[in-house]
Amino acid sequence: MKSPTIRAAVVALLLLPVAACAGSAQKGGSGADRDTLVWAFGVAPNSLDIAHGFDTASTTIQLAVLDTMVTLDAKGVPAPGLATSWTQPTPDSYEFTLRKGVKFTDGTPLTADDAAYSLSRHLDPAVTSQAASYFTTVKKAEAVGADKVKVTLTRPNPAFLAVSAIAWQVVPRKLGEAHPKDLGSPEVGTLGSGPFKVVKFSLTSGTVLERNDAYWGPKPALRRVEIKTILDAETLRMAVRSGEVDGTDILTPREARKWTGLPGVTTTFYPANNIAYLALAVGNGPLKDVHVRRAIAHAINRKALSDLMTGGRGSLAKTMLPLPQITALYGDDVPDFPDHPFDLAAAKAELAKSAYPDGFTMSVPYASGTDGATVMQAVAADLAKIGITLNLEPNPADKYRARVMEHDRLSVQYANLTYGTPEPVEVLPDMISRGAAEPQGFNFSGYGSAEVDARLDTLASATGDDRKKQVTALLTEIAEQVPYIPLFHSSSAIALRDGFTASVGTWTPSFFTITRPAGS
């Protein structure tokens, strides 16, 4: 999801907003205290632990509070974080040197054992980590000295450092072992060594961060960040306009015109590291039939849908990778992948080859009040033209998210996922590995096999032209078998009142660390 550059972002289920407005807006954003930022998400953060909260809102907070062993620089290249340096003694191992003198915000020293544990925990089935697919090639992580951590892989993995910059967030071993299932919850919280510390975390009344004055790195310009959740897009826009909220990143490209003209507000758009798509549950009734899936792909007017959802600030997706990853891998020499262009005659012909030539009816839940609702209504209208009836069932966004993450009665799901590296191996295991088809995984299609898993394992250590060849083969299979229908790539945006400035890049891990009072 980067090449035109990408946002240092986190895997995000933008289709699946959560919960209700976190408290009522209060006057006094940029006007009351210039080093206090009042921020609003359109989706509630659900965990301070990436193992249980791998979504945009949650991870934005996590990366302001928790340090990672490595970071990504402005070009997306791994750079020092908690680790000042690392070596690769063998193709399948890394040895990291830990930064000296780092402490958690309670004053406890951060140790090599904490760092090793914080990676190993994602491999523990008892944790059921949502980030587990990032570390499928990790065999073990261990402290091998007071300031040394060794990571042994099952095979070489060129993407290991890049994905570690997102998901290898370091917490105290003692805290993590005591709370394998509920670390990061409002009841337990978390403990980090990052530029901010959490002083309040509530799913209903919001989150408050304060600057960690003992932070080992550059101190944030902001003293305090107050975080709200405002689900309704127009309510959020009015809150920013009035000054009740200083900034937000949850504004959709199709609403750009409403935001760019707001007095006293600067809106900045930048290329997103995303792929929006439909997942077709290949084990569910008619969706088992590949001809049905191809018929659905032909019947959807993806160009019209892309224009509708991106407001002209996006592009049609032609394969199941974000644009920056496509460019990083292929450059200008992108293969012509099999496609299913909008063609109702072709759709009807494919349906005629299926076991459902006269069409069928299927119940499809969706998250009400979200972009997913708009997409699913358009999809249902398109499919009705070939005899496929989708009975759309609105669900509260939080309940829908929980249901989808549990893989409960999956059918046709809209998703818009944002990733954090230029590595295809960050995305493909999410889409087609059998492990990701389990609850808390992101393979909502259920597509996969032992053979596909073996190919993903081989891809993890591939380089050069062989890497391109293997990715191309997997993307071609996805295009032919249609467990997914790529829809569009969009832009991300940040809106800030004029009392604040920020230099947002595609690899920016957290808005809170780069936002500062204007003129400071």
Automatic annotation (TrEMBL):
Alphabetized GO MF terms: peptide transmembrane transporter activity
GO biological process: peptide transport
Signal peptide residue numbers: 1-22
Keywords assigned: Signal, Transport
GO-annotated cellular components: ATP-binding cassette (ABC) transporter complex; periplasmic space
InterPro entries: Peptide/Ni-bd, SBP_5, SBP_5_dom
Occurrences of domain Solute-binding protein family (ranges): 78-425
Pfam families per UniProt: SBP_bac_5
Matches recorded under SUPFAM superfamilies: Periplasmic binding protein-like II
Protein family per UniProt: Belongs to the bacterial solute-binding protein 5 family.
Database matches in PANTHER family: OLIGOPEPTIDE-BINDING PROTEIN APPA, PERIPLASMIC BINDING COMPONENT OF ABC TRANSPORTER
Protein name per the record: ABC transporter substrate-binding protein
Protein source organism: Streptosporangium carneum
